[in-house]
Each structure stands twice: as C-alpha cells, then as structure tokens.
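The instructor's notes for this session suggest beginning with a concrete chain rather than abstract definitions. Hand out the sequence below and ask the class to guess, before any prediction is shown, which regions might be ordered.
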Amino acid sequence: MDMHNVVIGKANVGPADVIAVARGNAKVELSGDALAEMAASRARIDALAAEPRPVYGVSTGFGALAVRHISPELRAQLQRSLVRSHAAGMGPQVEREVTRALMLLRLKTLASGRTGVRPVVAETMAAILNADITPVVHEFGSLGCSGDLAPLSHCALTLMGEGLAYGPDGTVRDAGELLAEHGIAPIELAEKEGLALINGTDGMLGMLVMAIADLARLFTVADVTAAMSLEALLGTERVLLPELHAIRPHPGQAASAANMLKVLEGSGLTGHHQDDAPRVQDAYSIRCAPQVAGAGRDTLTHAQLVADRELAAAVDNPVVLPDGRVESNGNFHGAPVAYVLDFLAIAAADLGSVAERRTDRLLDKNRSHGLPPFLADDPGLDSGLMIAQYTQAALVSENKRLAVPASVDSIPSSAMQEDHVSMGWSAARKLRQAVDNLARVLAVELVASARALEIRTYSHTGGDSPLAPATAAAVAAAREAGVGGPGADRFLAPDLEAAYRFVRGGALVTAVETVTGPLA
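After discussion, reveal the predicted structure:
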C-alpha cells in the first residue's frame, strides 16, 4: 500500500497502516464502498430515531442514565453533552503518535458501517488527520471498558470544533480555530454519533500495534547483543546448534538461536571457554539466551494474533448488524487487548533482566575470563562501566514494577452499571514505558559487549581480527554512531544516549545484516 495514501474501506486496516499514519504522517482516504455502507446503516438509525420506543444510544441517556428517554429536540444536545462531559482526562498529554493511531482506528470502525454515523462524520475525522491536527489527549481517563472513553472524547471534541489541539507546527491552540484555518467545518452531532465516536478500544489497540513493531526489532537487537556478549566471554556457540532447538520445538527459541549463530559465524573467540579457567558450561544468561528471548518472541506472535483480530473488529455499542438490526453488546470490553499488553510487559522485563546479567558478567573480573575489572582502562584510577551497569539495573528494576499486570484490577464505575473493567489503557501506557526502558537496557549491554570485544581484539596476538565479521561490523557501526570505545574515563551519559538511539532506531540490526543477511 502507498505509504502516503491509506485507503480505509470495509476491508481491514493493518498494522503497517496504523504505523504509517501514526508515525509516518501518511494520508488517509475513505473508499466509496465505505461511504455507501455508512449511508445505508445511517438510514437504519434515522428510522429508529423516528420510532416512539427508546433505543439505547439513539434516544436514551448513557450508562446508568440509560433509563431516560430523550425527546427528538434534545438529541443533538444529548450527543454534545456526552462528548463534553466524557472529555474529562487529566495528567500528562499522550504522545502525538498515540492520538493519531486511536483516531485512525476509530475512523476504521466508523467506515465499517456498523456504527450508524453519517459519512460526513468519518470524512471530517479523515480531514483532521490529513491536516495534521492532533487533539490534546491526557494520560488518565480510560478504564479500558465502554471504550477508551476520555481519550476518544477529547478527539470527538475536536470534531465539534471545541477543546484544544496541536496544529501542524506543534503548538497547542483552540481546535475551532485550527479547523477554520484548514477549511474543515465542525460537526453538529446527530443521534448516536457522539457515542459512536468514543466507544472503542482504539487507544489501547493503537499502542499495542506500535509496541509489537518496536519489540519485534528489540528482540532481534537482543539476539545480537547476546551473541556479542557470548563472544566477549569466550563462550561456546555449540548451544545454538539447530538440532538442539529442534527437540524443543518452540519457534521463537529456534529463531533466536539461529540469529545468534549467524552473528557469531567466523568468530575466533567462541569455544575457548576451557582455555583460561575450565568450565563445562556457560552461565544461564549466556547458554539460555535463545530460550528467554524465544519465549518473548512467541509471546509477541500471540499478541500479533490478538491485534489482528481486534483490527478486524467493529467495536461499538449498540451496533448496526449487516441485516439492519441494531443490538446492544459488550464488545467494547478491553480484556483481550489488556491481557496481551500485560503479557508483553512481562516478556520485556525478563528480556531486560537476562541482558543485565550478561552485562554484569562482562564487568566482573572474577567471571569475565581475563577482561579488566569493569572494562576500565586503568582499574582503580578508572571506574570504566561500573555505573553504566547501575543505570541498567535501575531500568531493569523499573521494568519489573511495570510488569505487574494492570488487567487484574477493576474498579466499578457508572453507579455499578459498568461493574467490571479491563484497565487496558493503563496496561498500554506502562508497556510503552517498558519498551523504551528495554531499549536502554540493551543499549548498555551493547556498550559493554562492544568495549569487551575491542579489548579482546587489542590483546589478540594473531594477525587478523578474532571477531566474527558480523560483530566486528556492529562494533564499527556503533563507533560511527558516536558510541565511544575503550579508554580513560570520560563523561559517559552521551555514549549511553548514542547507544540508545543506535539500538532504538534499528541501525545496529542494519549493520549486522550487511554481513549476515536478514535476521528473524
């Protein structure tokens, strides 16, 4: 699909589309079949609105207030009041990419024709996305049930020309002024439209899709840094042989082992674990690296399955079914998404934990097989990477706290009408932090393993470099990216930040793949 033109129709929006719009500013457009389907389902809503009997979301109040029948002359006010009152977020503003992702996903559901909104509502949301106007959305306000209510309400407020939004220049301004500058007419909401704009799992789903993409890269990074640490510690690559992983057939484990074996191909350092201080086996953090990373990879596969199913969903209440019936339902409950968000946070925490153990082993002269204490230039005078490991340990500890599940909590709301909620938005927010922390943890392992490999190279008595070609490429690319090598102590924070950018942006994997070819 054209990165600059995401067509939203009755067919599904995929993960790549979400990332293209959220992070790449791709333009969106509505297909003709989507517009036709919306018009058809809207006709059904209009017919229900004309009937004397109350219909939830069309001619009643909401939540615990659904017992009141609203007369026709008050229904526009009903929808306005719904959005205004539910735009009750507090706390820090969420990232622009999160808001764009949740808007795209709500637009995708509107375009399905299952919500009963007029086509103009979807067209206006598409115009706002394309104008790079981003509603101000706050950290707190969603319980992950009845949809991400407060976040989506802040977006719906912008469609009405109210509230605050970021303009294309990143300045927060009055939403009505921004719409006027871009020739976008604000929406006067009709029956059910306010409810349809806010009743979905779009925020937590958007964050899940982006976290999956980020973690897929970081699992590959972890295989690379684990291989570099194994090589620097003179470990054996024989534990990575495919026949060993075939007898425990977890796909992720096999993929991680294969990645590490590719990275270590041609190394002159591996397999020397009995030369200086004989040891029968490497420590778990080295020997079991594929098992830990592989379990995370398989978790990621499951999370992608859930995300794909949710991307195929039309979440609203009530919904207009293909046969024209309008039915209440509970599909807005975020449990399926919340569970995998929490599951991924656990995987991210454990992957960081095992990476930190490898780093600590590289720095400890009693376990590093000939490397200087803390990889310092002049130990005692210099501290080397001692405190880099402290920083890494702090990040690992923080990720362990973030791994505590949000989805096991529930606080009843709406006068006990909504008496069990998913807390999926909270699970997504903490996962975003955990993913970023993991990138920093792996960056520290990269700094340590690269320095250790260079020290091994300096002490090598042969002619050619003893490093595997792929790890040598990783070290060289890291140095070009501003990650300093061995030497006297210096201001270390810039090195760590450069390593973080190198890891997070994908440059480490790119450098290695120039030698190995594509990694899993």
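Then share the key points. DSSP finds 19 helices and nine strands in the chain. The radius of gyration is 27 Å.
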